Every structure is written in structure tokens, then in C-alpha cells.
Amino acid sequence: MRLRLAFLLTLVLALAAPSAASALTFKINNESGHSAEDVYVTITGTNFNVPGMADNVPKKLSEVPQPLTINTLHSGRVYISYGAPVIGNESFSSQTRFDWAELTVTPSSADVANLTAVDQFAIGMRLETFNAAGGLLETVGASNSDAIFNALQGIPGGPEATIRNGSGEIVRVLSPLNSAGYPDLSEYVKSMAGKEITLHTGLFFTPFGTSEYTGTFEADGSITLHGSTDPASMAPAEISFNGPELIKDIYTGEGTPNTAEGAIRHDVLAAFSAGFWGGRYGNDAIDFCTNPATRSDRVGSWCPDRFNQPAYAAARSGPSAFPAYEQYAAVIAQYAEEYGNPYSDASSKVAIGLNQPADGGAVDALCLTVLPDAGSSGPGTATGNANCGGAAPAPAATTPTTIPPQTTTVPRSKVRFRLAKKVRLRGAKLRVGKLLCVGHCGQVRAVARKGHKVIARVKLKVRAKRRLLVLKLTKLGKRILAHRAKLKVQLVVWDTPPGSKTAHAHRKLLVLHGHHAARKGHSKRKP
After folding, report:
1. At 113, is the secondary structure helix, strand, or coil?
2. Residue 340 falls within a domain, yes or no?
3. Same domain, 284 and 246
4. Which of 15, 79, 149, 312 could share a disulfide with 42, CB 3.0–4.6 Å?
């Protein structure tokens, strides 16, 4: 009887206890061209539980169990080096060529893995995740090293930041964090003197919040932002930047703690790094993304998918007499899906999720591929092979013809407006006029705003040359128009041509008079 009771008690406890999180399978695929005897692997981190490896103890790749099992690894790094082993504090002046990937396995649904060039770039690599059936889930990766090395030699400071071995071969190129050769961005920051900026920052904490802050730059780059958050008091009503510190922090990422205030500071610095402030999109950060989000129960808008407008040189209105974005980060962003500075996640995808089945996710395996120095690999190039080897080529008869991304032509749309003389408000709908599409308009989104407040909006697909443009009032818009006889609003229309991820913005001013709107004889187009 005692044995039966003990068995039943054990069974009840087992059923009541949460299931243990499954371990992450980790594979290293060597396509570097170096022998597995000449490639070394070092794994470091806290809460280290990786059977077959010891914390910060290098092994030849030929001696590493494949695949590895990662039970837990917090703030982990996987170092790859050629010719000699390295440990976690290896000097950046080392003649040994090394690079690393970063990952955290808690396990938790928030776990991620990424590549990084925040300190240096040395070896092109790729990360891929797979489900239990071997299906490819996500990938981030870099071009082959030679392509990135060559591009970095062509920017100011790049040659001075290049470390070579005794044979003259490039070992690594240091980032602005570790080389003084790159130009600072002081002239760019000071060129904003007297200009006002507006920030809309999503505060991804618990609870989620939004914020709106504005401020005007002083001559030395200092600025004090004034604003509020919803919920209230998540960040101070005033946030100040000292000009010289701001200029320094664009490269270093300092002064951006993991708080609501830190997130707002992060957006200021990230926009300088990417060349957004004073550029072609204006100085309202909501226009740095193509799909701003707004909720009727919350004050303010935010960019849910980062600053996803084309950045760096593409964000500038034209050439300038001084560096107006971070050129090292721009090269990394062009040739790799990895961190080129502390803000890279503000304008591009640089990480992949490691959400495992025990947490409701699908990730079963993570693969790190070490790429050869030469070749045609590029960002997003994945094998799709759960064994992490090169996928078998398709038969010649069925091999599709592909066009290299750099030669692909995306149709550029031309959008024109024909506003009605009297734009009628019918019920909750605001009939603005006609949208005239010359070329390929594709996806169109329009918003009428009073300052930062969204009065009306619409999202539609345009397949015809002409389309009525009718916006639906928001709850806020209804309340405002119920108490205002006359209201000036800005109409903003974004069109995204088929096959493109780039939205083109167009702006016009309207004046609403009660239940009708008269066309105002002024328009402004933003490319």
C-alpha cells in the first residue's frame, strides 16, 4: 500500500510540474575553406550548461561534438578563430583572426541569437534556425569577408582601422568604438542648431507605453526634450543631452539604459547614426517608418517595425560638406544582417528568435555557418538544409533563372492628387478626392493628422489608375470635429509599389470646415 501511495504521489507531482524546456541543438557548419583542425571554437557565458564544452576553453572544431546541446547559456558568445585558439578577452590587436556570434538560451520565448560587428568585423558568418522537422525558420547573415573588407577600405577611417598580419592580409577591421581614425559627427549634429525634432517612441516594457517628446537643438548640439508618456511618468518630463556627450555617444551607445528614458535617448542617437535627422524625411521621427501604429486608447504613435525607411545615404536629401551618418555602420548594414553599432536593431533586422517548443515556439536547432572569404554570399542567403550543409543544387532543367538583387528594377510610382473642391464628410467617412496613379501604386496608406493626433486614416490596394480616396474618422477625430468649426490638417499618403519594401510619402494640407473641407492652395511633396 505504501508503495502504491508513493507511486500515485510521484505521478501527481509529475503531472502538476511544468514540463522541462527542451535543449537547443547547436551545429557549426564549416564552409570557411580552413581545415577543421585549423578552426577553433570557444564558448563563453554565464549559467553555462553546454555538454562537451567548458566555459571559455577553446577546442579544435574537429574535436567539438556535433551537434552540441545547449541547455542554458546566458549572454553567450561562440568564438570562431583561425590558426590559433582565443578566449573571451582576446585583444583586438591580436594577429589571430577571430569573430563571434551572440546568443542567450534561458530557455525563454525572448531568447535570441545575433551576429555583431559593433567592435570589429573579421569573419563572415550566417545564423539559421530550424524546427523539429528540419524546416528553415529564420536567417541572418553576412556577405563573404572580402566584400566587406574591400568596402570598409573605401570609407574615411577604414584603412586606419584595418589590422593586418605579417603577410599583409587583413585580420580584422575595427569599428569606431576601437579606432580613432573615423571622423566624428560633430558638424552633422551642430548643423541641427535651431531645428526642432519630434520623437514618438514605443516603450516595450510592462505595461507597454508610448511617448511624445520635442526639443530644439542648441549651437553645440545640446538639446532638452519636453514631453510625456502614456502611462504617465514612465520617463521624466524633461530629458537633456549635453552636446559633446551626444556627439560621442552616437558611436558608443552610452547613456541609453534599459529604461523608458533610455529608449527615448536611444532613438535620438539612432536617428543621427542612420542620417535621419535633417534628412529627406524631415525631423518628425514618425516619418522614419512606413507603418506607424496608433491606438485610440493611447496618446501618441510609434514605429512597430523600427525606423524602416531607407537609411544612411538614402536618408539624406543630397551630398553634404561633412559626414552626415555613420559610414562604418552603413557598410555593415549594406553587406550584413548584423549589428554594426549599438542601434542597428532600430533600422534593420539583426537577430533571430530562439523560442523553443516548451515555450510555445518552434525553434529546435540553431546553425552557425562559417563562410569562405570569397564568394557570392550575402545577407539573407540561407541553405535551408537542417544538416547545415550546402543545399544540393537543383537539376539543370528546373533551375530557375534569378536576377541579382542589385540589378532588380522596382517600378517607381507617381502619385497625384485631385482634391475635391468640397471634401464632404459623410457619417464617419471623409471623402478627400481622387488618387491618380501613374505606374504602379500598389499598397496605399493615408492618414490625416492634426499635429501628432490622427484624425482619419485608410489603407487600401490600388489596382486601377484612379481611385477615390476616402478616409475613416478615428474616435479622436470624431471628438475633435464635434467641437471645432474649422480645423487645418495634414494629409499624408504613403504608396508602396508592388515588389518593393520602400514607401514613398506625399503630403498636402487640408482645412476642414465643420462637415465639409475646402481645398487649401498649398501642397508639399516629400520624396
Report:
1. strand
2. no
3. yes
4. 79
| Structure confidence at residue 505 (pLDDT) | 56
Q: Tell me if 243 sits within 8 A of 220, measured CB to CB.
A: yes
Contact between 97 and 162 under an 8 Å Cβ cutoff? The reply is no
The count of structural domains within the chain is 3
3-state secondary structure 275-296: CCCCECCECEHHHHCCCCEECC
Q: For the sheet with 223-230, list strands across it.
A: 196-203, 209-216, 223-230, 238-241
Strand 196-203 relative to strand 209-216, pairing: antiparallel
d(C-alpha 165, C-alpha 171), whole Å:
6
58 is a domain residue: yes
Helices (H) and strands (E) in the chain, counts: 7, 29
10-residue averages of pLDDT along the chain (527 residues)? 39 39 88 97 97 97 96 97 95 96 92 96 96 92 96 96 94 95 94 97 90 97 96 96 96 92 96 96 95 76 89 92 94 95 85 85 94 90 72 39 30 56 70 68 75 75 72 82 75 65 59 54 39
Residue 101 contacts residue 113 (beta carbons within 8 Å):
yes
pLDDT at 27: 97
CATH of the domain at 134: 2.60.110.10
Three-state secondary structure call for residue 240? strand
The answer as to whether 408 is a domain residue is no
Looking at residue 167, the DSSP 8-state letter turns out to be T
Domain range spanning residue 143? 24-180+346-370
Give the pLDDT confidence score for residue 1 in this predicted structure. Answer: 42
Asked if 460 and 471 count as a contact pair (C-beta separation under 8 A), the reply is no
In the block, cell 478616409 appears at 471
C-alpha 158/C-alpha 153 separation (Å) is 5
DSSP state of 403: -
- Identify whether residues 518 and 446 lie together within a single domain: yes
H or E stretch including 183? Answer: none
CA distance 138 to 126: 11
The CA distance from 137 to 421, in Å, is 52
86, 42 Cβ separation under 8 angstroms: yes
Amino acid identity of residue 121, one-letter, is: F
CA triple 310-210-106, angle to 5 deg: 80
Do 97 and 195 lie in a common domain?
no
My answer on whether 170 and 83 are in the same domain is yes
d(CA 2, CA 97): 64
Note the pLDDT of residue 441. 65
Cβ–Cβ under 8 Å, residues 422 and 515: no
Interatomic CA distance for residues 257 and 239, integer angstroms: 13
Query: Which whole-number Å values give the CA distances from 342 to 47, 128, 382, in the listed order?
Result: 24, 22, 25
pLDDT at 297 (0 to 100): 65
Tell me if 395 is assigned to some domain.
no
